[in-house]
C-alpha cells in the first residue's frame, strides 16, 4: 500500500478544508466482512480553476464512489488511493460505498470471539493510517472534521463511540457528532459489553469489558473510577481549558497491541488491565499511570493535535510526564517516579544508544512519510521525552511551565500545532531562553554521562568537579550521604545540592568527604551517572541502607548502565542484587532489578556455561524473599519472588510440587497466571508434555488460557513441537496478534540452543516474508518476540546484517532488526569485557 508522504499531506492541507464525515457501518454481515458507507463534506480553497487530490481507503470491495452526484471510475483505485480529479473551488460531497475486512492483528476493525463463552467483540484501532481499513478518509492529522457515526450491530450488542451513543431500535446506534478531531482518533467498540456507568461533574463516565471478565471488573471498579475521577479533577486544576468532549468511556478490549489508545471520549485499553489473577501494587500503579496518561491526551493530542508525525513526541512525551506527575498528586500512588525511573527510563536510555536513535523532536525531513513515523513510537518519544520535560520543569519552574501549556491550549484548541508553536507558547511566559533549551534537549541524540571528581582543599574539606561526556545543560541534585552514627547500617542525607552542568564554577565546595556522593539524586535529569571510587565502594556494600527508594533507583540504574557499558561485571550486578534485594521493600525496584538480572544478565550477558550459577543465585535470592514474607505482611513482594523463582528454576521438583498442591507453601494459592507460568517453565525443562498442557486448557479455556497453551506448546524441547510452532508463526498466517506473540515467546529458550540452532538462519528468511504478508503489527511482533534473542554469536550477527541489506525488510521489521542486532553486539562486548 502507498504511504502518505509529508509533502503530499502539506499539499492536500493547502487545498482542502474538511467539514464533516457521515459514516454508516453495518457489522451484521458475518465473521469476515462489514459494510462501510461514507459521505465526506469538504471544500476546495484553491485559486486554480481545477485541482487533483485523492482519498484513501483499503476495501475488500469498492462498490460505489460518487463525487457531487457523478459516479467515479472504480478501476482508478490504485492500492489505497482513489483519485479525485478536476476539483473546482467551493463545496463538494464525496460518497463511498465499500466492503471492508475485519482484522485479526489489532489494526483497523479488530474482531475477537471470546473462547470462554463464544461472544464476539469488535473495536477500532485507527492509529496512523489504519482508518482506511474502516472507512474512506482524507487521512492525515491536520484535516480535522466533525464525525457523525451510525452503526448497525446485532440486537443484543452495545455500541460505544467518541460521543454518547443512542440505540434507535433494530440494532441501529447513532453517536453524537464529535467536535473537530483527526481521522486517526475516531473510535467504535461494539459487542455485548459488560458496563459500569456513573456520572462525574455532569458527564457520563463508563468502564467496559467482555462479559467473561465482569467479576474482575466489578472487583476493581471502585479503584478504576476513583483514579479516573481524581485525575480528571486534577487536570481541571492544572488546565484552564475544560475537558472538551461529551462523555468519558474506558473500554478494556481484547488483543490490543498497545497499552491504550487516546480516542477522545472512548479510550481503549488492553484488557489484561482487568486483572484475572493476583497482581502487585506496582502493577496496579502501572495501570493507573496508563489511565492518567490517556486522560492527559484529551488535551494534548486530541484537543490540540500534531500537524505531522514528526511531532509525535508532543503527544507522547507530554502524556507520559503529565500522567506520572498527576497520578502522584491525585491518587495514593505517591512513588510513581521510582517505577518510572527503574522501568520506563532505561527503555529511553537503551533506545538512545542504538543506531536507530533519533532526536525527541526529529527534523521534519527525517519523518518523510507515515511508514517512517511509525518507527518513532519508542523509548525516546515516550521515556526520554518525558524525562526532558521533567528537566524542563525543574529548570523553568512548574508555574511557568503550566502557564505555557495553557497558552498553547488557548491558541490551538480543536486545531493543530507544531514544536515551534509549543516552544513559542512556553517562551511567552518566561524570561528564560526556551528556544536554546529546546535545541539542546529536543534536537540532539544520545545520552550524556556525568562523572564526579572529589578533590581535597587546604582546610580539610572537599570540592566537587563534574565532568560531562555530552553537551546538554543539566540542572541536577547532588546528594551527599553520611553513615548514620545513631543507626548502624543506614546512610543519611546530609545535604542535597542544586548544581548546574556545565558548572559555572570550576569546583563546588561540599564540606567533608561524604560516604556517598550521588549525581542526579531525585532523578530530575536524563543522563548516565558514574561514581567516584569511594562512593562506588559504599554503593556495593551499603546500597540498601539508602533511605529513599527513588535514590536507590538512581543507583540501580547506574549499576545497570555500567554493566551494559562493560564497566561492571555482570556477576557483580548479581552479587549486588543478592546482597541488597533481601532488604528492599519497594516493589518497583525488586521487580526491575530481578527482571534485568534474569532476562539480560543471566540470559544474555553471561556466557552459557555461567548461566546455571546465575540461576542458582537468583533462586536463592527469591527463596530469601519468600521466607522473609511468610508472615503475610508483604503479599506483593512475596508474589514477585514466587514469579521470579518459577522463571529461574533450573530443576522442576519444587515448582511441580507447587502445581500439584495448587499453592505455594504459606501462599499464594495458584491462580491462572501462576499455573500457566509454572507450566511454561516446566515445558522449557521438558517436565511435562502436550497432554498436561491440554488438560490445563480444559480448566482454563479463556483467551489468556489459549495464549498460555500456545506458549507452552512452543516451549517444549521437542523437534515436532518446534516445527509446528514455526509453521504456525511463519506459514499458515492463522494466528491472531496475541497468539503469534505467545507462540514466539515460547519458541526460543536459552536451554534449547542446540535444538533450535537450524531455525536461526530460517528466521532471517521467513520474517521478512511474514512482515510483508501480515502488516506492521505482526512485523513488530516478529522482530520483537520471534527474533532468536538467545543465539548470541557473530554468525547470527552476520545473518542479520545480510538480511538487512539483501532481504529489504519492511520498515517496521527493519527497525526491530537493527535494534536487536545492536543489542546482540552489546551482549558480545559485555561478554568480552
Can you offer a commentary on this structure?
Belongs to the peptidase M1 family. Its EC number is 3.4.11.2. Residues 517-826 form the ERAP1-like C-terminal domain. One of its GO terms (molecular function) is alanyl aminopeptidase activity. InterPro entries: Aminopeptidase_N-like_N, Aminopeptidase_N-like_N_sf, ERAP1-like_C_dom, Pept_M1_aminopeptidase, Peptidase_M1, Peptidase_M1_aminopeptidases, Peptidase_M1_dom, Peptidase_M4/M1_CTD_sf. The chain has 833 residues and is α+β, with helices and mostly antiparallel strands. It is built from 26 helices and 28 strands. An 8-stranded mixed beta sheet has the order 5-4-7-2-1-10-13-12. Strands 15-16-17-19-18 form a 5-stranded mixed beta sheet, with helices on one face. A 4-stranded antiparallel beta sheet has the order 8-9-14-11, with no helix packed on it. Strand 4 and strand 5 form a beta hairpin. Helix 14 runs parallel beside helix 16 (635-648) and helix 23 packs antiparallel against helix 24. The longest helix has 25 residues, at 214-238. The chain is globular, with a radius of gyration of 27 Å. The mean pLDDT is 97.
Features:
8-stranded mixed beta sheet, hydrolase, single chain, globular, zinc, 28 strands, 833 residues, 5-stranded mixed beta sheet, 26 helices, metalloprotease, aminopeptidase, alpha+beta
What can be said about this structure in brief?
Belongs to the peptidase M1 family. This protein is an alpha+beta fold and 833 residues long.
